[in-house]
Design a protein that fits this description.
Largest sheet: none
Helix content: over 70%
Number of helices: 11
Length: 202
């Protein structure tokens, strides 16, 4: 509905904290009771926003010449969708609707895994292994280091650490990691582990 679309846009523009029924009513130039009448409670509205975003993300085409490539592409959709739409990702985590946000993307990934020949426990294990990588990467990619006390940042701790590591390793550990590249490399290793090799059906 137009109300859900306006609410989603508000969250994208100003973050989850901006989403109040009063603020949304002002954005649409209607009374607050009108918002409640059309969408129910704020929890109902949040679920509708997250469901809408999930459906939009799942519309992305999965490309690749082999089964492994298509599974990897579907896995990266989950990671990149969360990165590109941080405000909605944050809203989903704050409201306990993260599984709803990911469901359609997970369903697309499961379809690719089954097309690759995995089923039952093997398919479920592959999905969960991929999600372990994705969620761990998102924790690193979405953290706000400006909120960390400077003395407790990883680079500062490594710089002053007494751990017996070489200067080259210490310097590398102090450098900013390329989370996107590391995520892609790690996901490829996980996909290669679970998905049979060889050409898939294009």
């Amino acid at each position: 509905s137009y109300i859900v679309a306006a609410a989603l846009d508000l969250v994208v523009r100003e973050g989850p904290a901006a989403l109040t029924m009063r603020r949304l009513a002002a954005e649409l130039d209607v009374g607050t009771p009108t918002i409640y009448w059309h969408v129910g409670s704020r929890d109902d509205l949040v679920a509708a926003i997250v469901r809408t975003q999930s459906e939009r993300l799942a519309e992305r085409p999965v490309e690749g010449a082999t089964a492994r490539e298509r599974v990897l592409a579907a896995a990266l959709h989950i990671y990149r969708g969360a990165i590109e739409h941080r405000a909605i990702t944050s809203l989903a985590h704050q409201t306990g609707t993260a599984s709803l946000l990911l469901h359609d993307l997970e369903a697309a990934l499961v379809a690719e895994l089954e097309d690759a020949g995995l089923a039952g426990a093997a398919c479920a294990d592959a999905l969960r292994s991929i999600l372990v990588v994705v969620t761990g990467s998102l924790v690193l990619a979405l953290r706000d280091q400006s909120r960390f006390p400077e003395d407790y940042r990883a680079d500062v701790l490594w710089a002053g650490s007494a751990a017996p590591v070489t200067s080259g390793t210490r310097a590398a550990l102090c450098a900013e990691p390329d989370i996107d590249a590391l995520t892609a490399v790690t996901l490829r290793a996980v996909v290669d582990h679970h998905v049979p090799g060889g050409e898939g059906t294009a």
